[in-house]
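Here is one chain, start to finish.
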Amino acid sequence: MKKTIVGIGEALWDCLPEGRKLGGAPANFAYHVGQFGWQSAVVSAVGNDALGDEILQIFDKVGLPHHIARVDKPTGTVQVTLSAEGIPSYEICEDVAWDNIPWTSDLAALAVRTKAVCYGSLAQRSSVSRATIRQFIAAMGDDTERICDINLRQHFYSLEIIEESLRCATMLKLNDEEIAVVSKLLGLFDGSMEEQCRQILMRYPKLRIVILTCGAIGSYVFTADETSYIPTPKVEVADTVGAGDSFTATFVAQTLAGKSIHEAHAKAVAVSAYVCTQNGAMPSIPAELSENFTR
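Its structure:
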């Protein structure tokens, strides 16, 4: 029986103004899914170095199951600079461990047990990790959820990567800046962001849900016959690192538990707003938010 929810891709250190924090969207996603009562795991690679050792120690400490290869490349780091509004910008080192995630028999066995996987465009910038992610998705089979979190960073994306990712996906998550880039790359008709999201939904047959987040304004969830919009709550922002990943994790956890689109959306908004009030990407969710997430 498929039970595990997986985040696959980059595992790295976010070098924030206040110090190093464990980061990477797949780990953030898997960590938050685990807080909501699901069995989760992160798949990535780290180097044979002290930074890699520390990542594995932290995963073990927080109880996050992991399938992390040790490879002959340095563990990834990202220099994160925050604006006055707490919005992050990223300088991402290249040719690092998570660019070289190997396909193994262990991953093949995990894929067969996987109920949902979240993957992004960033981790597919290298041919090695891109091939592994695609093999993992193929091994899962069609009776699964495949969540594509576009997460455009710097120049690490292409039309080919985006199109292939969307062909596999049952769910797409992107933000208001990313929809402009994706729409241009895909040659979508001019129109509102809502119209562009619906064009994407219609273009890719496996795609059932498109999530569009618009920062402090609000967020949308689109299906073939439904639109959910919720304004973003006003909170005191510490930083927004990882907020989108917590949104995705919550929404996936809720929909897999049988909640309606709007119910799942509302929970995702509440959790991501809380994460914005905390430093770093992986804070513990307080009981008043997490107690209703169990299946």
